[in-house]
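Help needed: design a sequence for this.
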């Protein structure tokens, strides 16, 4: 199973000391570069930022088609860059998609 995550699950679980639940449930997760940057280059302390840089089971991957990210953001005003990249990366990797992602995906 391929699991792609956006920022919220990582930061929220890290904030309460339960980030390892993702590894227990899925083994490994993939995050797009925008999610990595939202956490690491935020200019402030973000829960989980150290972990996305150091844990081997959290892998960062670049998208193949960035245009699809721009399309989602243009058509859906409430989707930030990390969420849009996570949706497109999940499609590119053929990951299992939650219902919201299936509705928004091009």
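Sure. Designed sequence:
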């Amino acid at each position: 199973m391929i699991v792609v995550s956006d920022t919220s699950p990582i930061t929220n679980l890290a904030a309460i000391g339960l980030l390892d639940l993702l590894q227990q449930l899925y083994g490994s997760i993939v995050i797009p570069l925008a999610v990595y940057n939202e956490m690491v280059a935020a200019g402030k302390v973000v829960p989980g930022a150290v972990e996305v840089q150091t844990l081997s089971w959290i892998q960062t991957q670049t998208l193949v088609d960035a245009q699809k990210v721009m399309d989602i953001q243009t058509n859906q005003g409430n989707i930030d860059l990390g969420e849009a990249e996570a949706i497109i990366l999940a499609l590119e990797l053929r990951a299992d998609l939650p219902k919201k992602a299936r509705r928004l995906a091009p």
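The chain has a mean pLDDT of 89.
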